[in-house]
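Supplementary Text 2. Reproducibility record for the structural model of the 208-residue chain.

All settings were left at their defaults, and a single model was retained for analysis rather than an ensemble. We include the record here because the model underlies the residue-level annotations in Supplementary Table 4.
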Amino acid sequence: QKALRRRNPYNCKNRPNNSRSELRHIEWGCDCAANRGRGGWVLAYMQYTDFYLGSSGLEGLVEKWREHFESLVQDWESKAWGSLSLGEAYMLLGKPIKAVPLLQAARQVWAEEGDERKWLRTTLRLVDTFMMAGQLESALALTEEEPYERIATGLPVEDSLKAEAWSIFGKVRESMGRWADARYGYLKALESIEKGAKMRMGKGDSAV
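Retained model, structure tokens:
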């Protein structure tokens, strides 16, 4: 079970050292995109730098990106992607409460679009956020929604999101002392990983 737990990128011990040259380029990119009114550039820069900014504790730059993003990005799909990036950055900053409404907004867009994989991906981040905030009941409720298990079950075994969904399913229940339910989720994740590995090996053999 421990092997199935994802490495937690939201732990401050994993934060890299800041690089002044990298920061200079990121700040320049932010200002350039905003000054030219390029919402697409703002979104792209944010998606490429969210992990770095969040894991480096650079909340000021994250807030700067958010201001430009909210003023320049208009279409719903781009807003959903940007909300997901911002939510993940806030989680890395240790600010789960700030991440919640952003992830909820992105999740709603994917639900309305009917994109089940993106909905599940965003739901997993929201579950992580609630767990980080100590709101286990809210995290559990998300994994009990009908689409969660249905979508996870329907994903192909070679899709890593399938194993991640079942692993998080188990992790929530383990945190609440529901050991039998946690074991069920971890076993489903392990099954997905093993079947996916066999399928990839089979494709490799057939290509030889």
